[in-house]
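Predict structure. Chain length: 307.
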Amino acid sequence: MSPNLHPMLNVAIKAARAAGAIINRAALDVEAIRISQKQVNDFVTEVDHASEQAIIETLLTAYPGHGILAEESGSEHGAKDSEFVWVIDPLDGTTNFIHGFPVYCVSIALTARGKVEQAVVYDPSRNDLFTATRGRGAYMNDRRLRVSKRTRLQESLISTGFPFRPGDNFKNYLAMMADLMPRTAGLRRPGAAALDLAYVAAGFTDGFFEAGLQPWDVAAGSLLVTEAGGLVGNLTGEADFMGQKECLAANPKIYGQLVPLLAKYSKFASAGEKAALRQTLTVPGATSPAAPAPAPARPEGADSAAP
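Prediction complete.
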């Protein structure tokens, strides 16, 4: 980790570790945790609430004039008109957590005038701390992060998130996977978007995409990716994605290959693209417009470049 951490990042790390301690204690007896449903397949636990409270108390003790945007309490805490807003997911991957599946994390980001300036993603089960300050790089524990160097999509590991809420477009996702699966080395669905983005930054995966995401799911992870040399945007490749509920992140070469494949599934796709996709999805037995058999391996660098 960088030896000269920004003071605000230090406070965020303190808050993330406090939340992580609560989560780790609770993980020792998951079956004793009280669970409730926000909606079908969308769970919240007493651990989410306790973790969020610990984070907010730590942040506002240090910066009482800052605003808060948190998954469980929204903007209830903190200043309402501050240019500094902490964006918090106290337990990303709650469904994993309540099943004892050890893929979940704490995500904390500081935005200044709408731009993410500080980021922490903390995986308490592995004690992995991902941090970034704008312009100072991204780190995992003591190691500087760089996105992967892969240039061919067919050699790439891509993570995603499957739809699980009422109203999610299942057909769209099936078509997206039909487009991508023959073209990649594999798709993965770990179940915690903030950690997915951290893994792109670390080069563990080569790209990530998902729809239906909230700012607290992607704020911290997006800065990790860009500070590690990657690109983040919506499914059409536009950089202004934070409030658009869709996210695409990858190393630059792979990003440039994913955008043409995924753009037609974006809510910002052209009317013609949306009409063609609807027709494909309603024709029985039809396949996605661009899902051929895997292409043969091509020489290094022969794939399309980043935008």
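Summary: Residues 153-282 form a domain with the D-Maltodextrin-Binding Protein; domain 2 fold (CATH 3.40.190.80).
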